């Protein structure tokens, strides 16, 4: 992956689950907008002010995990001909 997200952002490869064969397909081969994807890159976290100190809040998600996210979140980017979605950690609903 040539991109590295900043703060509390993640880069996700959208996939569609074919429940009849229990397989994942890349978004480019699907006709419906996916609501799940595989995490490709994770930012370091976000700094918050606690008292007089800035503290880095850790990311509780890892590269390779499959996640569920909302329909209208994130920004689509294309890297080497592959479409990814960049979104904030808070836009992810669940880790499968």
CATH class: Mainly Beta
Rounded radius of gyration (Å): 15 Å
> What is the residue-averaged pLDDT?
86
Unreliable residue stretches: none
Q: Tell me the number of structural domains.
A: 1
Order of helices and strands: EEEEEEEEE
Which structural class fits the helix and strand makeup?
mainly beta
Name the beta content range: over 45%
- Specify the overall morphology: globular
Describe the structure.
With 96 residues, the chain is an all-beta fold. The chain has one domain (9-95): 10 Kd Chaperonin, Protein Cpn10, Chain O (Roll), CATH 2.30.33.40. Helices cover 0% and strands 53% of the residues. It has no helices and 9 strands. It has strands at 9-18, 23-26, 36-42, 46-50, 53-57, 66-69, 75-79, 82-88, 92-95. Strands 1, 2, 3, 6, 7, 8 and 9 form a 7-stranded antiparallel sheet that branches. Strands 4-5 form a two-stranded antiparallel ribbon. The two termini are 22 Å apart.
List the topology elements:
Elements: E1 9-18, E2 23-26, E3 36-42, E4 46-50, E5 53-57, E6 66-69, E7 75-79, E8 82-88, E9 92-95
Antiparallel strand pairs: 1-2, 1-3, 1-8, 3-6, 4-5, 6-9, 7-8
Brief descriptors of the model:
10 Kd Chaperonin, Protein Cpn10, Chain O, 7-stranded antiparallel sheet, single chain, 96 residues, two-stranded antiparallel ribbon, mainly beta
